[in-house]
UniProtKB/TrEMBL annotation:
Organism: Paracoccus alkanivorans
MF annotations from Gene Ontology: metal ion binding; molybdopterin molybdotransferase activity
Presence of keyword Transferase: yes
Matches recorded under SMART domains: MoCF_biosynth (SM00852)
Listed name of the protein: Molybdopterin molybdenumtransferase
Phylogenetic lineage: Bacteria, Pseudomonadati, Pseudomonadota, Alphaproteobacteria, Rhodobacterales
Amino acid sequence: MISVDEALALVLSLADAPRGEVLALDQAAGRILLEPAVSRMTQPPFDSAAMDGYALRHADLGQRLRVVGEAAAGHPWTGSAEPGTAIRIFTGGAVPPGYDRVEMQENTQRDGDWLTVTAPSRDAYIRKRGCDFGEGDRIEPGRRLSPADIALLAAMNLPQVTVAKRPKVAVLAGGDELVRPGETPSEGQIISSNDLAVAAIARAAGAEAEILPIARDSEDSLRDRFARARDADLLVTIGGASVGDHDLIGKVAEALGMERAFYKIAMRPGKPLMAGRIGRGAMLGLPGNPVSAIVCANVFMRPLIHAMQGLTGSGRVFRARLAAAMPPEGARQHYLRAKLRDGEDLPLIAPFDNQDSSLLSVLAQADALMIRPPHDPTRNAGEIVEYLPLFY
Ligand SMILES: Nc1nc2c(c(=O)[nH]1)N[C@H]1C(S)=C(S)[C@@H](COP(=O)(O)OP(=O)(O)OC[C@H]3O[C@@H](n4cnc5c(N)ncnc54)[C@H](O)[C@@H]3O)O[C@H]1N2
Ligand code: MOO
């Protein structure tokens, strides 16, 4: 068995370099920037009024001023700033050279062309040219574009950006016991749930996910499904990974030329995880138990799909304080389904009592996986532990 960290490093090494595509900005939110974006604008492009009011000279404060012009947003005033004058200005208007402050109109009194500043503000209310960003400023690649990034790119006058193509992920559930939601299971059958969850996690990580028809427990059926996944960048299988007589995934994958990076991980749940390359893509073989499949998808598949798009720093862990004491751990790194609540400095984390790896009802209530390293000793309430947030 290898450690989770070793396994994760091997999984990430399966990622091909991301491929790029050029997208219009309004299609790019949520995508991973692949090439630097270089601003074509300075923002603001001119000293700009932050308030509706009057542009004037600091040196003239205390004097009655003559209003000699007007500058609205989009309509600059082109005269020159003579001593003893002011111009009417509106938020976003260009402050003409020579004026060094804008007084908000609430602090002034206007009488025809004449202006008195009744109570000068402390702030000059001028946004200096370039105070936001300058021409040539860069947004570096490797980040997921947020709505704020999209606005920034737009303001930089970049109508399109190069983002990573969405990796194609094929998700394959296998087992004679499985039928689709909505079908009537016969004796001994259950509903296939994992493939839907794994596809949802893959999509949330930026992939285009296809759910393949359920494979039956036969080599022929598996070969057929593997063939359907030929064009995928990543094939994720679920189940059939363990040592039972009907656990055929590894056997078939190897016959098809899979170079296996590893098989067993010191992890709970998720011990029988496979990873390697098959054909032109990567393959991850997740264990069949629903919680095991979904935990492994979060711990391994999600960072892998991110790496395929050039997104770094995925899988970051956070800290919380234990809500109750915990017994010592065994040899495998344990990912416990847990609930977070507010704490004084850090959040408090409380693992559920029943950690069986088949319990979807528990997983659905969990908002974190609390991580306990192999052979972690007894822990007291209040001690700091690490967790991986779930489903964001
Ligand atoms: N003798 C041993 N038995 C088992 C071991 C072991 O080390 N020695 N490991 C156990 C562990 S840990 C796990 S995890 C499971 C993993 O087994 P498989 O990956 O081969 O998964 P299956 O046997 O196919 O299925 C396990 C369980 O999950 C259900 N399942 C499978 N696919 C789906 C799906 N798409 N949707 C919902 N439920 C699914 C399946 O019906 C089984 O109940 O092996 C242990 N055994
Ligand atoms: O490791 Mo299995 O994944 O316990 O359920």
